[in-house]
Amino acid sequence: MVEYDLHHHGDREVGDGLVDLAVNVRLPAPPPWLRAELAAALDDLAAYPDAAPATEAVARRHGRAPEDVLVTAGAAEAFTLLASALKPRHAAVVHPQFTEPEAALRAAGHDVHRVVLSEVDGYRLDPAAVPSDTDLVFVGNPTNPTSVLHPASTLRSLACPGRVLVVDEAFLDAIPGEVESLAGERIPGVVVLRSLTKTWGLAGLRAGYVLGEPSLISRLRAVQPPWSVSTLAGVATVACCRPAALEEAEKLAVAAEADREYLVSRLIEAGIAVLGDPRGPFVLIRVAGGADVRLRLREAGYAVRRGGTFPGLGPDHLRLAVRDRATTDAFLEILRRVR
């Protein structure tokens, strides 16, 4: 099996003075109203955190019961909890996708079967590609780094008795209308992961949650470290689940979609291969000599995410975070020079 650096992430690409197109966090900082709520909670830090209010807020937000919810220290904690709590005989990860699920499984001693989707097929998921005997399957929706949004019907077809299907929806709130989400459904064996860090500029705070059947949630809670969700993460979760915050998130998603469409159109005009059908706040491209292009971009002041650390991709693949149009125009001017 080809070795990949499964722990390499976009934040490693960023450096002082570089324009950041490598990290998929939309806002440079939390919005003022959220910062004010976090600041107001500082006086509560002497007490141990209580995740109950956040759990109830998430349940209301998705129309689920509180026992369907586990609040976590970012969605990434959930991968470790799943790898620790479950004992799969045959685990599979659909690639290319975020590499922490496979890293967590391997760290827990589990073998992993890679279901590698094809660029030729636009990285679309064919349920038949997942072996029928797999009892634990991870898939992203929309998938990082391909930005492909799989139909909810396709994902539902992967759920079957004896299998746990984990759908990573960390970027789903960046899709207008949150179409194709399974978060509001209690489907036997299906676990949905969500993150608050991407939309709200909270990567340093670690705020996320898991949705699933109570029996599965109980198994994850049993292996979660005590007080892993900080007081501030709990406050942020409650705040970001309120109706006003959801309305603001929808507006941000609509703006991100428009910015992505602009980026894609400009890339195509420049003769650059845009892969798949991008629906998330990032785009996967392929350029000849991509490894050298990435380094030349750094020298010119721009950080982009290398693709060669994702199973199924290589050094010619680069992932670009969606930014505003002025940043896109300036970046493409440089990209034309360094290709």
Fill in the keyword field for this structure.
339 residues, alpha/beta, Aspartate Aminotransferase, domain 1, Aspartate Aminotransferase, domain 2, 2 domains, 7-stranded mixed beta sheet, 5-stranded mixed beta sheet, 11 helices, 12 strands, 16% strand
Short summary of the structure?
The protein has a seven-stranded mixed beta sheet, with helices on both faces. Strands 1-11-12-10-9 form a five-stranded mixed beta sheet, with helices on one face. It is globular, with a radius of gyration of 19 Å. 36% of the residues lie in helices and 16% in strands.
Run of helices and strands:
EHHEHEHEEHEEHEHHHEEHEEH
What integer is the average pLDDT? 96
Strand order of the largest sheet: 2-8-7-6-5-3-4
CATH architecture descriptor text of the largest domain: 3-Layer(aba) Sandwich
- Write down the domain tally: 2
Bin the strand percentage: 15-25%
**What is the CATH level 1 assignment of the largest domain?**
Alpha Beta
Give structural notes:
The protein has eleven helices and twelve strands. It is an alpha/beta fold and 339 residues long. It folds into two domains: 108 residues, Aspartate Aminotransferase, domain 1 (Alpha-Beta Complex), CATH 3.90.1150.10; 211 residues, Aspartate Aminotransferase, domain 2, CATH 3.40.640.10. The strands form two sheets. It has a seven-stranded mixed β-sheet with strand order 2-8-7-6-5-3-4, with helices on both faces. Strands 1-11-12-10-9 form a five-stranded mixed β-sheet, with helices on one face. The protein is globular, with a radius of gyration of 19 Å. The two termini are 31 Å apart.
